[in-house]
Design brief:
The protein is mainly beta and 78 residues long. The protein has a single domain, classed as SH3 type barrels, CATH 2.30.30.100. A hairpin with a 6-residue loop joins strand 4 and strand 5. Helices cover 12% and strands 33% of the residues. It has 1 helix and 6 strands. The longest helix has 9 residues.
Length: 78
């Protein structure tokens, strides 16, 4: 299975819905905004987290699944 088309669809979805990228080594990389994940022309998946220290690269065959994650909703002030 090639996850690239699915990932491109998830990144382009309107409205965007946050998800976690599950990898073969057990890591789950949260993608809370489409800018956090890049798919290079040669198929590498590049993930950047919320801090400068969070960064990962993976080949598509290391992707074992995708899970939708909940995001916090901002409280409305009346």
């Amino acid at each position: 299975m090639n996850p690239i088309p699915l990932l491109r669809d998830l990144l382009a979805a309107q409205p965007f819905r946050a998800f976690a990228l599950c990898l073969s080594d057990g890591r789950k990389l949260p993608v809370r905004h489409p800018d956090y994940l890049l798919i290079s022309p040669n198929g590498r998946i590049i993930w950047e987290g919320e801090t400068e220290e969070e960064f990962a690269m993976a080949m598509p065959f290391h992707v074992t699944g995708v899970e939708h994650i909940r995001t916090r909703r901002k409280k409305r002030v009346a």
